[in-house]
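Supplementary Methods. Inverse-folding protocol.

Structures were first reduced to a C-alpha cell string of length 177. This string, shown here, constituted the complete conditioning input.
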C-alpha cells in the first residue's frame, strides 16, 4: 500500500509519522495554503465498520469539545473528517510536536523546567476534558504530543474516549485557595 492511496485531494504528504496494523498517521500540507496538518487514517483499505465508527466518534467528540470549551491549546484541534475510498481520514492541526514516547528515553535528561511544563500541560488537558465530562481512557506517552520549542503540550487520539454524566470534576474547599 502506498501512503498516497489514502491522502485526500488537496493535501501533500510530507512524512509518515506512525504506522500500525490499524492506523496510519502522516504529516502533510494543504496544497492551497501550505498549512501543516496531520492526517490520521486506517491502515486497511476496507476497514471494519467498528473502526469507521471510532473515527466518527473521535471527530464528533473533538468538534463538540471545541464548541463547548473553545479551541483549547491543550487538546488537539480537529479540522475535518473526510473519506478517501472507504477510509476515514481525520485531519487535525500539526503544531510541530512529537509524541512524548519519543522523549521518554531522554526525559530524565530534560531540564526540570521543561519536565514541569510538560507535566502541567498534561494536567491542563485532563482538566479541560474532565470539566466536560470526558474520559480519555488511553492517556499514555503515545497520545501526548509535545513541541519542545514552543512548550505546547496536547492530548491526542480520542477514539475510545467517552462522555460520562457520572464523571464530573468535583470542587473542594482547597479550590478556593
Amino acid at each position: 500500500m502506498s501512503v498516497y492511496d489514502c491522502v485526500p485531494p488537496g493535501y501533500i504528504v510530507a512524512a509518515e509519522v506512525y504506522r500500525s496494523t490499524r492506523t496510519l498517521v502522516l504529516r502533510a500540507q494543504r496544497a492551497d495554503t501550505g498549512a501543516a496538518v496531520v492526517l490520521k487514517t486506517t491502515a486497511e483499505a476496507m476497514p471494519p465498520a467498528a473502526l469507521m465508527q471510532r473515527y466518527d466518534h473521535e471527530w464528533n467528540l473533538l468538534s463538540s469539545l471545541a464548541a463547548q470549551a473553545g479551541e483549547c491549546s491543550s487538546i488537539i484541534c480537529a479540522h475535518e473528517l473526510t473519506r478517501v475510498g472507504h477510509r476515514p481520514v481525520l485531519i487535525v492541526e500539526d503544531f510541530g510536536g512529537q509524541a512524548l514516547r519519543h522523549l521518554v528515553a531522554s526525559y530524565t535528561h530534560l531540564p526540570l523546567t521543561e519536565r514541569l511544563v510538560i507535566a502541567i500541560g498534561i494536567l491542563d488537558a485532563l482538566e479541560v476534558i474532565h470539566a466536560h465530562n470526558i474520559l480519555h481512557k488511553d492517556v499514555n506517552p503515545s497520545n501526548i504530543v509535545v513541541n519542545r520549542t514552543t512548550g505546547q503540550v496536547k492530548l491526542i487520539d480520542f477514539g475510545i474516549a467517552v462522555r460520562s454524566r457520572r464523571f464530573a470534576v468535583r470542587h473542594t474547599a482547597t479550590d478556593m485557595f
